[in-house]
Write a structure and sequence with these properties.
Elements: H1 13-37, E1 41-47, H2 53-63, E2 69-73, H3 79-82, H4 88-92, E3 100-104, H5 113-117, H6 122-141, E4 145-152, H7 155-166, H8 177-184, H9 186-199, E5 207-211, H10 215-239, H11 273-297, E6 301-307, H12 313-321, E7 329-333, H13 339-342, H14 348-351, E8 360-364, H15 373-377, H16 382-401, E9 405-412, H17 415-427, H18 437-443, H19 446-460, E10 467-471, H20 475-497
Helix pairs in contact: 1-10, 2-10, 11-20, 12-20
Length: 498
């Protein structure tokens, strides 16, 4: 593949001087237009050592408004980054709507440098390709423009540039053991690069191989490619504006039939208060022990609580965490997204809160809002919530592949029990804050939410991250079941690690 690239391509000075100033002006205009349209732009610069990535990025920066972009030089992962799933640091760096992120090297180190050094095995490398494809597809479908450049030079040209760098005391440091190793194993690297280009160049995130022997030619090609890619997305948005979401019509029954999963639950399950207190003390002490063992074993855990209004999530979470060390866990309450969160892919705010190894994050509501409240209320389009099932499964798979325990609870109560709890909140002074007009409005959409919950459970209950339904008419029963479930999952993870 790369052997067919014509590395002799060049531009005469007079041609370059006649076209490049206009490209700089056009790029500035495109950046302003993307900002106004809310289009996030992601630029990836990969290439051979000494191929001119830094120079290319520098010339881009000179043509762009510095308030609208950020350059991310990617080096070896820090200790904190290594304690998270490997894509965590890249999700955190994704740009907001209208902003540009320029990556000097990127997530492709996982399938290039790590492949050559054999720090990532064949199985993990295959998984990394799948992770990258999912990552870029999710960002693209969320509205981002992704432009990826591989700056290509021949082996002899790389050697020539190394000699020039080494001859100058100010630049000699740029040629070290890593760079020399790449040059000695140029053919090995080329095979890895070709594999990467072939596997990760879909229509929405194509690679552009830049013939980089002459910097003038490379610069013009980069500018032209980038301008075209962003303009294409701007034109597409004009021709096909995003459709506004529409509230879901009230269904006649669950898509699984008149007696769906939720209808078959035994909500009459109860636990006597005396037995509850004994079990509560026992399981809280057990969880304290397990939390510390997870910390020592560097195993992270994510616990998700979803359920109907007044289902008892808050009380359940308090009993779960009461006996745990607060330095080892965090409870993340999920409300309506902030302006900053709306300007990113909807999964961005959840990736930011993924726990590092040995720590626990409890989500009081979660990414499942995409297929529940956002679907019912029309806060997202039909296409958005439909593809969210795949995106959520990919997200959770990436977490579990990295060693995260995922425990997902759905708290189910009957409609009559919800009404009783609503009235109790209204009539109890210190509980009044818990009941709002929004709760009553959501209650009127009970049947709509039921359809969404049934579909959510079916589409996103996987072997690695299954849903656990808590029969929550009796809060005591639901709390003990939750504690037992968390303890069992932690014990299983510890056994597997041992």
């Amino acid at each position: 593949m790369l052997e067919l690239v014509d590395l002799t391509k060049s531009l005469p000075d007079e041609v370059y001087e006649s076209v490049f100033p206009d490209l700089e002006i056009r790029l500035g205009r495109i950046q302003r237009a993307a900002r106004e349209a809310g289009v996030p732009v992601i630029l990836v610069f990969e290439g051979w050592d000494a191929s001119g990535k830094g120079t290319a990025i520098n010339r881009l920066a000179q043509a762009l408004d510095p308030r609208g972009f950020k350059v991310h030089p990617i080096r070896e992962a820090t200790t904190m980054e290594r304690r998270h799933p490997w894509l965590w640091r890249f999700w955190n760096a994704t740009p907001a709507a209208g902003q540009w992120a320029i990556f000097d090297r990127s997530w492709y180190g996982r399938v290039l440098a790590d492949r050559i050094s054999e720090t990532v095995g064949k199985k993990d490398r295959r998984q990394a390709f799948e992770d990258i494809q999912a990552f870029e597809r999710q960002l693209s479908e969320g509205g981002a423009v992704i432009v990826k450049f591989w700056l290509h030079i021949g082996r002899s040209e790389q050697k020539r540039r190394f000699r020039i760098l080494e001859s100058n005391e100010a630049t000699a440091w740029k040629v070290g053991k890593v760079e020399r190793h790449q040059h000695r194993h140029y053919d090995l690297w080329r095979r890895a690069v070709e594999d990467m280009l072939e596997r990760t160049s879909p229509a929405y995130a194509r690679w552009t191989v830049v013939e980089a022997t002459q910097s003038r030619f490379a610069r013009v090609k980069i500018f032209e490619t980038l301008i075209h890619a962003v303009q294409t997305e701007l034109d597409r948005r004009v021709a096909h504006p995003l459709a506004a979401g529409k509230p879901m019509p009230v269904p006649k029954q669950s898509p699984t039939g008149r007696h769906g999963l939720l209808d078959r639950l035994d909500l009459g399950l109860t636990l006597e208060s005396g037995d509850y207190e004994k079990q509560l003390d026992r399981w809280q002490r057990r969880l304290f022990d397990l939390e510390n063992r997870l910390y020592v074993a560097r195993i992270p855990a994510v616990i998700v609580y979803e359920g109907q209004d007044a289902g008892g999530k808050g009380g359940n979470i308090r009993r779960l965490t009461r006996g745990m060390d607060p330095r080892g866990y965090e409870v993340v309450p999920v409300a309506a997204p902030t302006t900053e969160e709306k300007d990113h892919h909807y999964l961005w705010r959840f990736w930011k809160n993924v726990p590092r190894t040995g720590h626990i994050t409890v989500f009081d509501r979660s990414w499942y809002g995409r297929v529940l409240v956002e679907r019912v209320e029309g806060f997202c389009t039909r296409d958005e919530w439909r593809r969210a099932y795949r995106e959520i499964n990919e997200f959770e798979r990436q977490l579990t592949d990295s060693g995260v325990i995922i425990i997902k609870f759905w708290l189910q109560i009957s409609r009559d029990e919800q009404l009783r709890r609503f009235k109790d909140r209204q009539e109890t002074p210190f509980k009044e804050w818990k009941i709002t007009a929004e709760d009553w409005r959501n209650r009127d959409k009970w049947r709509q939410y039921k359809v969404c919950v049934e579909e959510m459970l079916q589409q996103t209950s996987t072997s690695a991250a299954p849903w656990i339904i808590l029969e929550a008419n009796c809060k005591l029963y639901a709390r003990i079941k939750a504690l037992k479930t968390v303890a069992a999952a932690m014990e299983a993870a510890l056994r597997k690690r041992e």
